[in-house]
Every structure is written in C-alpha cells, then in structure tokens.
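Review this chain:
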Amino acid sequence: MEQEAGDQLLSKVMYDPGNVSGTRLAKFQQKIAEKYRRPDVGKDYESFWAWSCEDPASFWRECWDEVDIIASVRAKDDDVLPEGDRIYPPPKWFVGARLNVAENLLRHSLPGSELVNKPALIQATEPSAEEPENFLVQTTTQSELRRQVAQAVRALRQRGVVAGDRVASYASNCSANVVAFLATAAIGAIWISAAADFAPQGVLERLTTVRPKVLFAVNAVRYNGKVHDHTEKVRAVVDGLDASAGAEEQKLEGVILIPYMASSPTTLDKTKGWTSWESFLKEEGRAREGEDESSIDFAQLDFNHPLWILFSSGTTGKPKAITHRAGGMLLQLAKEHLIHGGMTPQDVFFQYTTPGWMMWNFLVAGLVSGAPLVLFDGSPLRPSASSLWSLADKLGITVFGTSAAYLAALEKSGCEPRREFPSLKVRQVLSTGSPLRADLYPFIMKAVGPDTLIGSITGGTDICSLFAGHNVALPVRAGEIQARNLGMAVQIYSDAGKPLGAGSPGDLVCTKPFPAQPLGFWGQASEDRHRETYYSTFDNVWYHGDYVVLTEHHGLVMLGRSDGVLNPGGIRFGSSEIYEVVAKLQQQQQQQQQQGEAKTTAAARIQNSLVCGLKMPKGDDEVVVLFLVVEQIDDAQWQALVDEIKSAIRRERSPRHVPRFVRRVKGVPLTMNGKLAEVPAKKLLNGASIEGINKATLSNSDVLTEYVEEGRVLRSQLS
C-alpha cells in the first residue's frame, strides 16, 4: 500500500514558491537575459539552464561576478576556458587568476564586517541520556574564527608546511577541524579528512596514498550513548604511517590532538611528536611582537591549485584519491549555496555529516554566505528521534541537511517536530545519500511545515558538489529532484550512448566541462584509471554511475546506482572494503596453520566471496548481503564463521559496514577475465529477470539461478 501511495504521489506538487522575482537566482537570470540580449533566457529556469550549458565560459565568468569571488588577479575573458568545450582531459579554468579559498570563506570575519561579532561556527555534540537537552554547545564568532585560523596558519608555517604539502584530519565534526582546514587552505597545503568512526586500517589505506606531513585528531568522541576513546586508533594510524613510509616518501612529522571530549583524558605521545591543540595555537601560533594576532597572509594560488583530496568508496580496489581544484570548488559550492539555495547571513545552516563524507566540505563552504554553521557530531537518533529537532529549535536552524535514510527513520519513529517544537524556523530540508521516496514528502511537509522547500540533491565525492538539487525558484514535486543545476550539462544516456528524452531511464552523464571536475587521482603515475573511471564508458562525456529518469517537468528521479557501490543508510562504501577483511581472515588462519599455532577453522575454507546491496521494500535504502563460497562445513561451523566475519568487519571497518545477511552459495559469477561480476548478481538479487543478463560476458553463467532464488528468499524476509 505504501509503495502504491508513493507511485500516486510521484511528481505531485508539494510546495510552490509563488512569486520568485525577488530571489537571487531570478535576479541573476534577468541580468543575464538583459546583458546578452537573450529574452528567451529570462523565460523560465529551463531556458536559463540551457544557456548556462551552451556557453560554459560566459556562464561561469558571470557566476564568478555574481558570487563575488575575491581574487588578487582576475583571469582575462579569453582565459576563462581557453581550451574550449572539451571535457577530457579536464580543462584548466580561469587561467592566470590568483586567489585563496580560505580568504573567500573568511570574508565575513574582516574587521568592519557587519557579521564580525556574529556566530560563525556552532559546535554541538550528541547529548547523554542523563542530560538529553545538553548538546555541549560551543560558539565561535567570526572574529574568533579569524584569530584561531591566523594562529593555526602561523603554527603550520613554523612547522614547515608549504603549498602542496598534505595535511590530514582523523577527527570529529568540530570547530577545531574547520579551523585546521581553513589554515591549511590559507597556506595552499592540501586537506585530507577521515571520520573518527573509520577503523585505522581504512584510514591507512587512504593516508598512505597521500602521505600527510601533519595530522589533526580528536581525543575521544561520543556516539550512540557512549564516549569512545580515539587515541589508540590515532596511535595505530601513526604507527602504520611510520612503518610503511619509503625512503623518498613524506614522513608524518607531527600530531595535533584536539580535546573534543573534555571529560576524557588527553594523553600526548610526545615520542611521536604529539602536541595539544591549545599549545599548537597559543604557543606555536603566537603572533610576533607588534603583529596583529588576527592577520593572515593568504597564499595567492592558481585557480587550478589542489584544495583537498577526497576518497572514492573503493569498489574496485584501494580507494581513489580524488584531487579537487581550489577555484572550482569555491565557485561551484558558492553557486549552490548562494544562487540555488538562496542562503544569506540570516540563515543558520545544519548538515548532518562526518568529516569523512563530502557533505562536510559542502557544509564548510557555507561560510561564504555568512550564515552560522552548526557542526553536530554523534548519533542523529540519540537520546531520541527528536534530538536534532530540539537542537534546530534551540539554535534557530533554517537549512536542515540530512539523509533520506534519516527521514525514513524519523517517519517510522512517529516523531513530528513541528508539533513538539512549534517555533521551528526550518525553511529548507536538504536530503542526500540515497533517493528520497515520494511518500516521504507529505510526511516532511506535515512534520516540519507546509512552506518547507524539500531539496533532494545529488552529486558525489567525485565532484564534491551537485549535478542537480534544490532550487528556490521552482516548485517541489514528490519524488523528484527539482532541476539540473546551472552550468551542469546533465543528460540521460542509453546503454548505446544516445541521449534519452523525458520518461526513459538511463545513465546520468555530463556533456560539457565544469570547474568542479577533479584534476585526477593523487599518486597515480598514469591517467588511465582517471579516464577509465569517468570518461571511458561514453565518448567525451562524464559518466557518473547513477541510473535516473528525466521527468516532463525537467526534474530527475533517482533510480539507484549503475555500479556496485554499496549505500546502506546513505553511507557509501565499496565492496572491496568487505573483501579485504574476508581475505585478511583467510590469510591469518592460513599463516597460523602453517606455523602450527591454530587448528583449522572455517575461515581457511572460504573459496570466494561476493558482496552487493539489496533494496529495502520501499526502495529508499538497502542492506548489505555477503555471499560466501565455502568448503563443506557443518551448521555450527557456519554460524561461527558468520559471527567471526561480522565481528572482523565491525572491528576493521565500522558498524555500518557489517552485512545484514551472510549467505552460503555454490559459486559467484565471474567475467571472462576472472573478475567478480557484482552488477549482474545485484540485479538478480533485486528481482531483475535472468533473461536481461548478458550471459556471454560471464565464464560461469550457470551460477546465476542461485542468485534469483536468494533474491526471492531475502526480499521476503525484508517485506
């Protein structure tokens, strides 16, 4: 019944903004229509979007002016996109321009700014069950933020950090982490961030690729009602980096420990170069005599200089170190916040995220608007489902960013924030991580307010921004992303690489260059992997791996992933993160047997494994299923193996990685060159017809029927 209700709701108008002529987007549109003498561009949003894609150089030059980029040198008009409309190799943008991202994000902290004494960052932590209303709120004003960044810049420079060095974070979503990023960007060093809930092995897989000079970390975190010490995990990462560093590779030279949980002891391992956050700022970052303690010497950098490195989910091996350019990130994210979202200093911006997700970068970029950022760390559902809404009420949050999985959990809990907190000021609810199903739209309108813009957004780590998303000048339709974003030439392609019209599902691609295209993958001697990832599926277009349909209203309905990325609860990760844990168990058992240290256990009998996602009945989430091919074992041994694997995955990865189901099968599908064929298995698991699978691409297509039956059994268990 719920699915039927969702189908009936799909594309129904849930919110209409009314007269939008006063929005920044509409004013920008009219300015373009008049300047370029194109009355058709001013007709409607779709016409404006089409122009922005037809002439990317002109659009992005105008966007630069609209969001008021601060730069010491501006690119000449002919140098905005001098290489033309070619999308690969990724072209250089705004050649000759010199700027600094941190300088732009700190614009509202300048002496004399109207916002200089207003909040810039509001740090909040999951409350304890004993004090459910105590979020341990700490506020940092714009002037305080500038002073702390200035201190951190001086301290990093004193440590020898220069443009191009890597600076990493293994921390919570806290104010100090934002300060550390801004200081890194001010110097021109490159930022890398891992969430505190990542296991050390997962962090090492990432950091050994980029080899940071300095690491920021927290002493402890609170999650799911418990305080967890973090220092042992930090020590494991530091030891791993030290042990694996080659003679010519950058060594880790220091760790700065942030006292995130004041109630937890902060033990500094000074033999490893550990320093307290306070000492780092106040001693190493002390201003020279006569120097303004808030003065910052911002490095003026090329538009295409690297800003940060984000990591792919690792579907086909070690996570890819996706390197993003500074100017492209600044321009793209400013466009999304200021033009599409209409964010102003009167807003208060919250986005539920960890520092290991691109939405953290999206959140921090909100500083460009002057709106205070709410940095929350902890479980979104503890001590109760209404906790985040209590926080929203206390802080006056107006833009509430979250995941579709959280909104589904909120509905299931029976929580109705508006009834419990009648003075809520939330005007936008942004949803990402997975498709937001249509039947959740009326729930959100009722739970939050009838004038709420529900902004389902889509993009990804690959571009650290959006292809399509929220739009203050358009209606909201149930189940639809409102529109393709300006400057993003998104089309839907068939398997044959042909553009599809409205109503026909296909692959999301981008056909024109855009400033947020990544520069490449850090540490890759060859460009082959970069090209194969994004540009090889179809000729001269960006292939994103999302399966979507364009609606008659020019919105998008997300149908899922085209590839094998796992996405339970909106947390994306690759299948290789599971395979590596299974392989490690096998290797450990085999080594122990060879050394005569252990009896044979079931782990040594694993012959192969395959992992994929199984959609929940409503289609808004998925669970992880791990299939194992194992030599003959009895039921007790099988259960012991399942327990051992789940425990290892929880320990080596995170609780979010643990499969819902571990199933025993006779075989796993393999391609002709022996690679795991995850996508066919996933399709069959989710109910696709076996006739739709190209068996000619598989070396053992006879195993497919087992996955048809497994899908039937598991789907019935979830229903």
Q: What stands out?
A: Residues 575-718 form a domain with the GMP Synthetase; Chain A, domain 3 fold (CATH 3.30.300.30).
